[in-house]
Each structure stands twice: as structure tokens, then as C-alpha cells.
Amino acid sequence: PRLAHLTGLELDPYFVAPKVAWLRGRVDASSTITTTDSWLLHRLCGAFVTDVATAGRTLLLDLDTGRWSDEACAIFGIDPAALPTVVGNAVPLGETSVFGGSVAVTGACVDQQAALFAEACHTAGEAKCTYGTGAFMLACTGAQPTRSTNGLVGCPAWQLGDELTWCLDGQVYTVGAAVGWLVDMG
To answer: pTM of the prediction?
Structure first.
């Protein structure tokens, strides 16, 4: 319950922190273990960062502040100083020449929150649902974090400038498999 209050997320191996803790017990302790976005951004432009929406899916981010939680990190034995810097979703991160010439890398966002933004759900109460391997219903909750008491998770939606916007997220992880099973059943 304390972790859910701190981060807005229920303890679940779906999120990053349990995976990082598990890996740290099985690889060289001096290794850097991070999220795919941080690795990719570092390879592209040398920035060791993650956006606030992606960080909000780790079980390590303080839901109220949008920064790493010392208490949540301690629960998983993770040093917050070893984590990527949390940044907004539309900030200059660097440049890359991977695509030919110099290309600015100016933002990042986790998929479901990016879809919420792209569907123009910018006002509290507006929601979207996407279907794929899983189904994800996200509802914008506006300028204040919301903690659910019915199984939804609260998380940052995006940060533009100094303004942080939050959302509630309901997930069904196996929608694609369920549809496949129904098709197979005729």
C-alpha cells in the first residue's frame, strides 16, 4: 500500500523496478540497468534521460513530484543517483547523426501517454482506449495526481514546460491473446 501511495502503481512485475531488482541480483553489480528508452536516447544523442511519463511506469517515481522517490528506490535497493535524469516530454535532448546529417532529438514519451496526448485528451475527464496485445484505457486527470481505489493506476501523462499533467490508467494485458483464443474457438 505504501508503494502504491508513493508511485500511483500497484506492485506488479509488469513495471520496471521488480525487473531491475531481479536483474541486479544476476549480473555484475557495476552494470547499468535501465529502460529501453534511456538506452536508446543515450545511443542516439548521449543523453542519459527518461521522460516523466516513462519514469512513471517504473514503480520508482514519486507521483506527487514527478521525480525519483528515495523511499520507493530503497524498497527495491536501487540508488536514485544511478537512474537516468527525469525530463519533460518536449525538451531538447541532443542531436544524432544516425539518420544522416545532424537531427535534433527533442522529446520522448511512453506509448500510451503519447496516444492520450495525440487523441487530444488534454482536459480532465477526457479518455482514450487503445487495443493491441493489451488494452489500455487512459483518462486525463489534469493538474493534480489521482490515486485510484479501484485498481486503476495513477501516473504522469506528460510534462510540457513546467506544467505536469496526470492520468489514470486501466490495463488488460492479454486482450490480443483473448481475441486470438476466441477466434480459435470459432
So the answer is: 0.90
